[in-house]
Amino acid sequence: xxxxxxxxxxxxxxxxxxxxxxxxxxxxxxxxxxxxxxxxxxxxxxxxxxxxxxxxxxxxxxxxxxxxxxxxxxxxxxxxxxxxxxxxxxxxxxxxxxxxxxxxxxxxxxxxxxxxxxxxxxxxx
Length: 125
Known about the structure:
The chain is mainly α.
C-alpha cells in the first residue's frame, strides 16, 4: 500500500457514516485532485528549471496538453483502481491493523497547499 491508498482510506472512512454511497466517489476525487496538483507542481518545477538552464524542450501549449492528458489518465486510473478489487484489499488490510487517524482538515488543506506552492513557484520563474 502506498501513501495515496492510506489517504484514500482516511477520506473514505470519514465520509462513510454521512454519505454511504458517495463516500467512495468523494475519496476518489480527493486522491485524483491531490495527484493532479502534485503533477502540476512537478511540471512547473521542471519548466522553471529548464528555462533557467536555457533548454527549449517544448512549447507551453504542448505542455498544457500533456498535463491535461496525463491528468485524465490519472483520474481514469484512480477510478479503475479504487472501485474494484483494490479497494476490497485496502479495506481488508486496514481493518486488520489499527489505522492511523489523520486530521481531516489537514487532509483537505493538503491539495490547497500544493496548489499554493505551485503558484508561488510559477511566479518565481
